[in-house]
Amino acid sequence: MDNTKRIKADQNKMSRENFFELVQIRTKFAGIFPFVIAVLFTNTYFHSFHPGKTLFFFFGMFAFDLAITAINNYMDFIKAQSDKYKYEENIIGRENLSEKQIQRLIISLIGFAAIVGLILVVQTGWLLLPMGAACFFVGIFYTYGPIPLSRMPLGEIFSGVTEGLGIFAITIYLNTYDQRLFYLELDVNHFAITGNTLAVLAIVWAALPLMLTIANIMLANNLSDLEQDVENHRYTLPFYIGREWGVRLYKVLMHSCYGVILVGLVAGIYQWPILLTFISLVKVIPQTRVFAKQQIKDKTFPMSVENLIVFNSCYALGLLATMILQLI
Predict the structure, then answer these.
(1) Count of CB atoms situated within 10 Å of the CB of 197
(2) Taking the alpha carbons of 186, 191, 197, 200 in that order, is the dihedral positive or negative?
(3) 27 secondary structure, DSSP code
(4) 8 A C-beta contact, residue 176 and residue 46
(5) Which of helix, strand or coil describes residue 195?
(6) Are 280 and 274 a contacting pair, CB within 8 Å?
(7) Nearest alpha-carbon partner for 65 in 136, 12, 3, 119
(8) I want to staple 143 with a disulfide (CB 3.0 to 4.6 A). Which of 72, 191, 274, 282 is the partner?
(9) What pTM does this model have?
């Protein structure tokens, strides 16, 4: 009996451990940085905070994040060209999991996130609807469909903008909707989008380090998986620009984050405690050098994840110190 017939004939129920691996629960800590930093930034820059709506959004955001990772693993299993990857490395084939159960899980998670989003639209205004819909669209079609975004040289851009800016902007919107810093008026007769230009520019600039570090995770992952991706017909950015230029881009994106912080400080977006972000250089510089020399999934790729965690932890620390200073 071949592998395809075997996996359909005797599929296993999903255990808690299988679920955690399917949604890559260990990676979710890094994924909440846009949310946490947005909460800190909205307190330090806009001096506004709505804890109830913020917490409610967090649950919906987290459920959607789990769903996207599950879709990613499911589509990798479905589209895999290599039997070794499909039945030995991918969690679904390796553990012989039920595809229908995984489909139901994904639909349930997305449905919950959609309900949370619609309730928040009713509470805060129409602008949240297109913002959330854009994140839903990119998140789902990042790995789903005949030509997923992740299999194109656009994955870094879409992941960085959707997670780094999308979640960040939505979190700030939920905490400042009553100030109408950016707002959509909509009724039967007319619609109008209004906003504060300087506030929007400040939000985009503060989100830049998040966009760059998240895009860099995707780039590092694609560099580490380059040969395997080509074997499975995934043609990501490193395939088109080459490994050498991909490594150069990785270093530029990582180091640019510190330039963004400095410019933001001079422009008045941050206050001096944000300089605590530069503590992360102690870890980031040596780890970036090691990864630049060798891009190995199980050895050096975790260093790129650590770079994201260390940098954004120090970024959050700088904003937290700013908030404490403002309260004194």
Answers:
(1) 9
(2) positive
(3) G
(4) yes
(5) strand
(6) no
(7) 136
(8) 72
(9) 0.88
Give the span between the Cα atoms of 160 and 256, in whole angstroms.
Answer: 14
Q: Which residue type does 250 have?
A: Y
Which position has the token pair 């903008």? 161
- The full length of the chain comes to 328
Q: Write down the domain spans for the chain.
A: 3-327
Looking at residue 49, the DSSP 8-state letter turns out to be -
Q: Which residue has the tokens 């630049």?
A: 292
Tokens representing residue 214 in the block:
């998240």
DSSP single-letter state for residue 15 = P
Instruction: Report the percent of the chain where pLDDT is more than 90.
Output: 52
Reduce the DSSP state of residue 181 to 3 states and report it.
Answer: coil
The answer for 284, left when phi > 0, alpha when psi is -120 to 50, beta otherwise, is: alpha
pLDDT tens for 6-22 read 445 456 777 888 888 88
Helices (H), 162-196: 168-176
168 by Cβ neighbours in 10 Å (0-12 / 13-18 / 19+) ranks as buried
User: Which residue type, as a one-letter code, is found at position 143?
Assistant: T
